[in-house]
Amino acid sequence: MTFRHPDLGEMLAHIEGNEGNIAPHLAKCDNCASKVEELIELLDAFTAAKLPDPPAPLVEATLQRVRDEIENSTSPVAAIGERLQQAIDKLSAAFAQPIREFQAKLDTGSLAPSPQFRGGSAGDTRLFQSEPYDLVLGVDSGEAASSALNGQVIPKLGAAIPAGAVALLAQPDALIEAPISELGQFCIAEAPDSNAQLALLIGSDLIRVELPI
Question: For residue 18, what pLDDT is reported?
């Protein structure tokens, strides 16, 4: 999986308020955000100083450096996505049939726990929906030093959870795997941070979950 960084033209358009929306990307990518800040400072300096136009070679050298750094940089979000995709590729290689991929999105109209979710209370769980499965996630602080992420997978057609199902949580510095039981339950002993990515591999179905919760 690859993540495209905005090019120089898109960054300049963003600064000038023209069409294109790279704000969500800048919120997650420190590298690109710093490049935009550098461009803003450069443009502000030119405006405030009221100096003659800088030499063309200097301007081109500065812009080329920004282009090179953008091209060669790997944002934390991209690194997390690549780590998750590598694990998915490795696990899915065992299946003879193609992997079907689905996106599980938050059901904003149903923030109370599902009746089938074992444990949890209203307000501390979130319901996500995809075509083949519903998923309930809850962060349990408990008495431990760090929170745990509890999940309940609910097949929509009443099918059983196949053996070998696994939940994968990619964090900035680690990939955590947790088995999904035949009842659809799993627990990851670490709550996801804002950049984490979660996916469930259930048989030949891959469910990507829209975080944060």
Answer: 67
Q: Which residues pair with 202 in a beta bridge?
A: 205
8's tokens: 């120089």
Q: CATH assignment of 78-209, given 2.60.120, 1.10.10, 3.80.30, 2.60.40?
A: 2.60.40
Q: What are the boundaries of each domain within the chain?
A: 8-73, 78-209
Closest to 103 (Cα-Cα) out of 180, 184, 209, 199:
209
Among residues 18, 36, 19, the alpha carbon closest in space to that of 27 is found at 36
Phi, psi of 59 (to 5 degrees): -60, -45
- Kindly report, residue by residue over 23-78, the tens digit of the pLDDT: 888 888 888 888 888 888 888 776 776 656 667 787 777 777 776 665 665 555 56
Q: How many residues does the chain have?
A: 213
Quote the CA–CA distance of 178 and 133 in Å, as a whole number: 18
CB 5 within 8 A of CB 25: yes
113 neighbors 138 (Cβ within 8 angstroms): yes
Sign of the C-alpha dihedral, residues 72, 13, 1, 29? Answer: positive
- Euclidean distance between CA atoms 149 and 196, whole angstroms: 12
* Rounded mean pLDDT for each run of 10 residues along the chain, 213 residues in total: 69 75 83 86 73 72 71 60 77 72 81 45 72 86 67 86 88 86 90 79 88 66
